[in-house]
Amino acid sequence: MSLFGNLLTTYEMIQGASGQTPHSAEKDGDVDAAKKALIPYGHTTLPVSLLVLVGMNGCIRGVAKIKRTIIIPCTEESMGRTIKPVPHPLFDQLQYVDSERSPEKTSMYLQQLAKWKGDDAKLEAVFKCVSEHSISEAAAHYGMELTDKDDKVGVCFEVQIGLEDSDLSNDVDIRNRWIAYLQRSQHKLGKDIFGEDLYTPTTNFPKKVVSSDANAKLLSANDSTNFTFRGRFSSKEQALLVDSASSQKINSTLRWLVNNHGTLTGNQAIVVWAIKRPEEKPVLNPQSGSFDFDGSLLSIADESKALHDDISDALNATNVQYAKIFSRVLRGYEGAEDLKKHNDPMVVVILDAATTGRLGVTFYCELQKDEYIKRILQWHVDAAWPLFKKSIVEGAERVNVVQYEGAPSFTDIINCACDTSDRSSKSYKRFAKDVKERLIECMFGGAQFPMSILNAACHKVTKPMGYDNIRVWRRDFEIACSLWKKHYIDETRKQHRQEDVITMYLEPNRDDRDYLYGRLLALADNFEESVLRKQGVKDRPTNAIKLMSNFTAKPYTTWGTLWKQLTPYLKSANGGSWFRNEVDDVMALFKEGDFEDNKALSPMFLLGYSCQRRASKRKAQEISQKNNSNN
């Protein structure tokens, strides 16, 4: 099914919530809570700053400053208005409801309100108020001076009925009255392009789908002077025949999904939802790392206590076979009877505003829910690597470093590959938007992992002296290893060489030149670091780290330089026989001529370095624990 077909289906599932503001948003005091509501047919939203209290006789009883977004009745023309003056039916900007500001616009407003207000007392009160009084004068009376800059300030009304005030922005009767007014005297004309009943063809389409670029429209047919219809159609009606109700359902549903399920990066929105149960949050967020993914996964598997405990223990432990754990999780998911009942299609869509007036669909994918979860799980298995994350301890003013084995989040990947640390800059936001889209395509669309991201991450982490904090570099380095591991797995899978799949742990018999050179650099790094630690020196970059950039470009000659710089440390360690033995073991694995080859190293050396460094540290810890137990 197409995106539009799925949006119409979704609307039918959620239309009961039309016009209702989420309780969580109201509870949190969100002034823009109305943006998260499903907008009813014939309505839109308006940010308002003035509240006018109106008596039943039309007099103004008070004017107050407020700040919130409300749901308002609108026409097709006013919903998509830009420069042309078109009034909303009830709530509008000050220039439309105050004749002192613009007599022409106010006259248009009153003519429209007069046509549909009928005998409704509250609408009649607003009609008299705008006809007979100036809101600007009333505001001055209550201590508020409104200038010409306030012409576009939104105005809403409350009508005083007896001792109570009726908030018209939340009046269901007023909304239904307007919808009935729009639908009267409609005659069926056939079907529109989406297969829906055609009553009122529309050429004015809603905007405000993505709040960061409110003027961008998903549907549009207002360009008849260039190439829009040439060659196939003679008019825009032939190119885009859409019923007004269908158009509003599509745009209202998509807007609701963006505001409730979407992730915004600039003008880009990534949305994931279940077609049959759109009110539920996605079971698994594809952009999360495995550390955050743990909690979501537990919610899936809570039908099985054994599986729950399995996942809880495994994902919080270090040095565990991560891929095997997720394989068990995957089998557990497939066998969970409860989950079989919720086999709903999932939709992944990316929207982006290329210009201020056009909203494009840059990625669209529809998946069965089990397929959706499988693809996310496969991503987390392939990109699994030992990582660490800062975790704030509740009730304590300290931060713990938590180790886990899993895939990094999209944000981690972006920060690892981006060459700027200023996350508020335009270049960072542009980069983040591009990377998120390409990673979604890689996860769900079967695209290869982008080489530009892989190369950027490798280039950045092989220059550790460009970092201000060595610990930040180490985290980025491990994330880069995660990305390249996934790349190598994808390559071996594509070439049907499953026996050569790279793992996250040290492979002592792997004889790949670049992998072995990475191991040598890690041994030198660990050795010097251990000597410095015994001397009481911490967090000082070792010579191996300082020379990493040169080592990557010319490993053979740089290894000679590094070995000379290790001489003082070898003397301090009484010759460092254990270090020399480990180096000899690695050197023995080089094929003939590989060690003397001075060409630049491939990113495989990153994995060799990381695996060897962790293996050496683990071995040192085991020896230390053994010595302590003997004492």
Helix content estimate: 40-55%
Give the integer mean of the pLDDT values.
Answer: 81
Distance between the termini: 70 Å
Count helical runs. 26
Q: How much of the residues is beta strand, in percent?
A: 15-25%
The value of Rg in angstroms is 32 Å
Poorly predicted parts: 298-342
Query: What's the shape?
Result: elongated
Q: What is the number of E strands?
A: 15
Indicate the structural class: alpha+beta
Which sheet architecture does the biggest sheet show? Answer: 5 strands, mixed
Task: Give a verbal description of the structure.
With about 625 residues, the chain is of the alpha+beta class. The chain is about 45% helix and about 15% strand. It has 26 helices and 15 strands. Strands 1, 2, 3, 4 and 5 form a 5-stranded mixed β-sheet that branches. It has a 4-stranded antiparallel β-sheet with strand order 10-11-12-13. A hairpin with a 5-residue loop joins strand 6 and strand 7. The longest helix has 27 residues. It is elongated, with a radius of gyration of 32 Å. The chain starts with a helix and ends with a helix. About 5% of the residues have low confidence.
